[in-house]
Amino acid sequence: MTRLVSRWTQEETKMLNSLVTRFKKNFRRVADHFPGRTYSQIRSHFYNQIYRSERGSFKDSRSHPTPVQQQEAQQQEVSFYYFTELFE
Protein backbone atom coordinates (compact mmCIF):
# COMPACT_ATOMS: atom_id res chain seq x y z
CA MET A 1 0.00 0.00 0.00
CA THR A 2 1.47 3.36 -0.97
CA ARG A 3 1.24 6.27 1.40
CA LEU A 4 0.91 9.95 0.68
CA VAL A 5 4.04 11.97 1.10
CA SER A 6 2.75 15.50 0.84
CA ARG A 7 2.11 18.53 2.96
CA TRP A 8 -0.87 18.57 5.25
CA THR A 9 -3.76 20.68 4.02
CA GLN A 10 -5.74 22.93 6.33
CA GLU A 11 -8.74 20.63 5.97
CA GLU A 12 -6.68 17.62 7.03
CA THR A 13 -5.30 19.52 10.02
CA LYS A 14 -8.79 20.58 11.11
CA MET A 15 -10.04 17.03 10.69
CA LEU A 16 -7.09 15.70 12.70
CA ASN A 17 -7.77 18.18 15.48
CA SER A 18 -11.44 17.21 15.69
CA LEU A 19 -10.63 13.47 15.61
CA VAL A 20 -8.07 13.84 18.39
CA THR A 21 -10.72 15.67 20.39
CA ARG A 22 -13.07 12.77 19.76
CA PHE A 23 -10.66 9.82 20.21
CA LYS A 24 -8.20 11.54 22.55
CA LYS A 25 -4.64 10.54 21.63
CA ASN A 26 -5.53 7.14 20.22
CA PHE A 27 -3.75 7.78 16.91
CA ARG A 28 -4.43 4.26 15.63
CA ARG A 29 -8.16 5.02 15.57
CA VAL A 30 -7.51 8.44 14.07
CA ALA A 31 -5.39 6.83 11.33
CA ASP A 32 -8.44 4.86 10.16
CA HIS A 33 -9.89 8.16 8.92
CA PHE A 34 -6.76 9.06 6.91
CA PRO A 35 -6.24 6.29 4.34
CA GLY A 36 -3.22 8.05 2.82
CA ARG A 37 -1.38 8.74 6.08
CA THR A 38 0.49 6.47 8.44
CA TYR A 39 0.11 6.34 12.19
CA SER A 40 3.56 7.87 12.54
CA GLN A 41 2.78 10.76 10.17
CA ILE A 42 -0.41 11.56 12.05
CA ARG A 43 1.17 11.45 15.49
CA SER A 44 4.16 13.53 14.34
CA HIS A 45 1.97 16.16 12.71
CA PHE A 46 -0.16 16.44 15.82
CA TYR A 47 2.74 16.88 18.22
CA ASN A 48 4.92 19.02 15.93
CA GLN A 49 2.23 21.37 14.64
CA ILE A 50 -1.05 21.33 16.54
CA TYR A 51 0.05 20.49 20.09
CA ARG A 52 3.07 22.79 19.98
CA SER A 53 1.06 25.76 18.68
CA GLU A 54 -1.73 25.24 21.24
CA ARG A 55 0.75 24.94 24.06
CA GLY A 56 2.55 28.07 22.90
CA SER A 57 -0.66 30.09 22.73
CA PHE A 58 -1.56 28.95 26.25
CA LYS A 59 1.77 30.22 27.57
CA ASP A 60 1.29 33.55 25.81
CA SER A 61 -2.18 34.02 27.23
CA ARG A 62 -0.88 33.53 30.77
CA SER A 63 2.01 35.97 30.44
CA HIS A 64 -0.03 38.82 28.91
CA PRO A 65 -3.28 39.70 30.66
CA THR A 66 -6.32 40.22 28.49
CA PRO A 67 -8.17 43.56 28.56
CA VAL A 68 -10.86 41.96 30.74
CA GLN A 69 -8.24 40.76 33.22
CA GLN A 70 -6.67 44.24 33.26
CA GLN A 71 -10.05 45.83 33.93
CA GLU A 72 -10.79 43.39 36.77
CA ALA A 73 -7.40 44.14 38.33
CA GLN A 74 -8.11 47.88 38.20
CA GLN A 75 -11.51 47.40 39.82
CA GLN A 76 -9.93 45.40 42.62
CA GLU A 77 -7.37 48.14 43.21
CA VAL A 78 -10.08 50.82 43.33
CA SER A 79 -12.29 48.85 45.71
CA PHE A 80 -9.30 48.17 47.98
CA TYR A 81 -8.50 51.90 47.99
CA TYR A 82 -12.04 52.80 49.07
CA PHE A 83 -12.03 50.04 51.68
CA THR A 84 -8.86 51.39 53.30
CA GLU A 85 -10.30 54.94 53.23
CA LEU A 86 -13.18 53.78 55.42
CA PHE A 87 -10.88 52.67 58.23
CA GLU A 88 -8.51 55.60 58.42
UniProtKB/TrEMBL annotation:
Originating species: Hexamita inflata
Domain (HTH myb-type) ranges: 1-54
Superkingdom, natural source: Eukaryota
Protein name: SANT/Myb_domain
Entry-linked PROSITE patterns: HTH_MYB, MYB_LIKE
Record domain Myb-like: where: 6-50
A Pfam family this chain is assigned to: Myb_DNA-binding
Signal peptide: none
